[in-house]
Automatic annotation (TrEMBL):
GO terms for molecular function: exonuclease activity. PANTHER family: COMPONENT OF ATP-DEPENDENT DSDNA EXONUCLEASE, PHOSPHOESTERASE. Keywords: Exonuclease, Hydrolase, Nuclease. Residues 4-204 form the Calcineurin-like phosphoesterase domain. InterPro entries: Calcineurin-like_PHP (IPR004843), DNA_Repair-Maintenance_Comp (IPR050535), Metallo-depent_PP-like (IPR029052), Mre11_N (IPR041796), Pesterase_YhaO (IPR014576). This is DNA repair exonuclease. The keyword Nuclease applies. It comes from the Bacteria. It holds the Pfam family Metallophos.
Length: 439
């Protein structure tokens, strides 16, 4: 087998809108809008510096079916750059950019191959000597919703001795966090006889299997708080024995974080503020040269909870941090090391022994047991929600949003409601109900 090197990337989602983020200045907004393109530029530089033979893109090049003209032009520019360096590009389309959506045409480019809606295979030649190096099989989504297990169509070619790479945009083993398009199992892929499954669709980077390789490289730029951590692609080196070595490379220019701040042993507002600023400093040094966006989740139980619940501390601190961030973004190279606090989520509770309250023969004890049960039992949860949200359901938009909420989110609301009830009721009850003695 001739050794060769390639890049596996997927889910570029060019021109993502970053709709979930508010309060940013125009400068920051345009920096965010530019980030998917900046990651594409870094992908290009990486391909050139690593001297890869080719690159495979496993679907979702564009973010939306009606992708912008800008996204298309920037992608075509990147394709041309790959061509100038003799790097072949192999593309499948996914559920965000199926073949039937506008602007999907890549034009005539010798070095670019876009797979059609039917399974096909191409043999590829190594860049430096044009020796056959690998076979790539792939299928694009003809329309946005592919419910067939298309992985079963992959067959090894007659060029038995070559390394076989499969390009598929699919949900392997039914990841519930993503739409189950092109559903298949790990076993389906292992039995196919292919050496490397270059997958796309799930944005979380993961290697599901090593012999053969079954790989999600994740997206190249996180787009929301659900996509935290480093984002990038894999450089894959295949040696003479057909063994693959994977190396992850970061490509993101904006990185998302979710950080917990426990308040258990926190004395006052200043301690909270110091904790927040320390974390921001840590993130800044971890992400040099990048912008970061962080959501702080306040957890634990402590005396500070009551004030946090009231909202003023976090609101004022957020306002101040945003003011500083906007100011430093306006300076030259101001986005490097910029940390934008997306929000503070209060998930803490008052300084109270909840377990003791749960056992108590009181109204509050009863209420907590009721909440606990609703969180554990699906039937009673929907009953609680049906009754509690009834007045809001007449509003179409509200009822749509409420119905969309996942069980996890509903449980979080219940938990918040309980903490609020503890706060409101315990201060009016005789004896304070389960309050921890201060000593
Ligand atoms: Mn995607």
């Amino acid at each position: 087998m001739v050794p060769f090197k390639f890049i596996h990337t997927a889910d570029l989602h060019l021109d993502s809108q970053f709709k979930g983020i508010s309060g940013v200045s125009d400068d920051i907004r345009s920096f965010l809008r530019e980030s998917t393109f900046a990651s594409l530029d870094r992908l290009m530089q990486l391909a050139v510096s690593e001297q890869v033979d080719f690159i495979v893109i496993s679907g979702d090049v564009y973010d939306a079916q009606d992708s912008s003209l800008q996204a298309q032009l920037r992608f075509h520019e990147a394709l041309d750059r790959f061509g100038e360096h003799g790097i072949g590009v192999y593309i499948i389309h996914g559920n965000h950019d199926p073949l039937d959506s506008p602007r999907m045409k890549t034009g005539k480019r010798e070095h670019v191959h876009v797979f059609g809606p039917e399974f096909e295979q191409v043999t590829l030649l190594r860049r430096k000597d044009q020796k056959p190096a690998a076979v790539i099989g792939g299928i694009s989504y003809p329309t946005a919703k592919v419910t067939e297990n298309t992985s079963l169509r992959f067959r090894r070619s007659r060029e038995e001795s070559l390394f076989h790479i499969a390009l598929l945009h699919a949900n392997v083993d039914g990841d519930p966090a993503h739409e189950t398009y092109s559903p298949c199992t790990r076993q389906d892929l292992i039995h196919s006889g292919y050496d490397y499954w270059a997958l796309g669709h799930i944005h979380k980077r993961q290697i599901l299997n090593e012999l053969p390789y079954i790989v999600y490289p994740g997206n190249i730029q996180g787009r929301s708080i659900r996509e935290t951590g480093a984002k990038g692609c894999y450089v894959v080196q295949v040696n003479e024995d057909g063994k693959a070595d994977l190396m992850f490379h970061e490509l993101d220019t904006v990185r998302w974080f979710q950080e917990e701040i426990p308040i258990d042993s926190m004395e006052g507002e200043e301690a909270f503020q110091v904790q927040v600023e320390d974390r921001m400093q840590q993130i800044r040094s971890e992400c040099q040269g990048k912008m970061s966006i962080v959501r702080f989740v306040i957890t634990g139980r402590g005396s500070l909870h009551e004030k946090l619940e009231e909202g003023r501390i976090a609101e004022e601190l957020l306002h101040e941090l945003h003011r500083k961030a906007v100011r430093s973004a306006a300076e030259p190279s101001g986005f490097e090391g910029l940390v934008w606090v997306e929000s503070f989520h209060v998930r803490s509770g008052p300084w109270i022994d909840r377990n003791a309250l749960l056992l108590e023969d009181s109204f509050l004890g009863e209420l907590l047991r009721y909440g606990q049960h609703a969180r554990e039992d699906e039937k009673s949860r929907s009953e609680v929600f049906r009754k509690a949200l009834y007045p809001l359901m007449a509003n179409r938009e509200l009822s749509r949003l409420l119905n969309e909420a996942a069980d996890e989110e509903r449980n979080e609301w219940l938990q918040r409601a309980e903490e609020m009830a503890i706060l409101l009721l315990s201060s009016h009850e005789e004896g304070g109900g389960g309050k921890i003695d201060e000593d």
